[in-house]
Every structure is written in C-alpha cells, then in structure tokens.
Design goal:
Low-confidence stretches: none
Distance between the termini: 73 Å
Keywords: Membrane, Transmembrane, Transmembrane helix
Protein name: DUF4878 domain-containing protein
Strand order of the largest sheet: 1-2-3-4
CATH topology of the largest domain: Nuclear Transport Factor 2, Chain: A
Radius of gyration: 22 Å
C-alpha cells in the first residue's frame, strides 16, 4: 500500500514538472518581448487606426523626436497603410535594433527601416522627425 502511494506521488510530481516546463516555454515564446514583436504590434495598431495604443509603443525621451499625442492620433486615423511584412532585423546592442519592413499603402509599397530602443525591459519604436533624421 505504501509503495502505491509513493508511485502516485511520483507521477503527480512528474506531471507537475512537465506542466511547469511547458508553461516556461510558452511564456518565452509568446510573451518574450523582441523588437520584431513590438514593431509588429505597433504597425498592427496603426493599420487598425488605434492611435492611442500605438502611441504607447513610441519611444519618448527629451533628446528624441516624438510628436504630440493628439497629432499622432490624428495621423494614425488618416493613415493609408494597409499591410506590412517584416523583412529582417539586426541588433547593434542589447538595447538598440533595426527592423526592416515592407510597408504596403493603398497605392504603393516601400521598404523602411525602423529603429527600436529597449528601455526598462520594454522595446519601443523610435520615430524620425519630419526631416527623417533621428535626434
């Protein structure tokens, strides 16, 4: 009788460990923040004209360019962007990356490279100013 209880405990422990490993892998795969996933989320929000939420993914620092919240939201609501395709990425450092994307607009397509910056464990989209230069 004692042997049977030990065997049951062992199988319960084994099931628990397998579930824990699956949970860890799932968390890493689905919730691990990468520059590509952040840009994907940002562009999806812009396409769906959700300016409020997409503005939260914009890097805002006194030394960088970022538009006024209201201007950004109005711009996102008027966007002609209809689709995009992530082409590739390169990490310069642990906190800086560049992601190349093919942007599809209603009447044209063009490639663009987005700079991504990691701050406090979160990736953000670094916007370029009207002159297309980052500050």
């Amino acid at each position: 009788m004692y042997f049977l209880k030990f065997k049951e405990k062992k199988s319960i422990l084994l099931v628990f460990l397998i579930a824990l490993v699956i949970a860890c892998i799932s968390t890493y795969t689905f919730w691990y923040d990468t520059p590509e996933k952040t840009l994907d989320r940002y562009l999806s929000l812009v396409i769906n004209k959700q300016g409020e939420e997409s503005y939260d993914l914009v890097y805002k620092d006194k030394n960088s360019y970022f538009p006024d919240r209201g201007d950004f939201i109005r711009s996102a609501q008027r966007t002609q962007l209809i689709d995009y395709k992530l082409i590739g990425s390169a990490n310069d450092k642990d906190s800086l990356a560049e992601v190349k994307v093919l942007l599809k607009f209603k009447k044209s397509e063009r490639e663009k490279t987005f700079t991504m910056k990691k701050t406090s464990g979160q990736w953000y989209v670094v916007l370029k100013g009207p002159d297309e230069e980052q500050r």
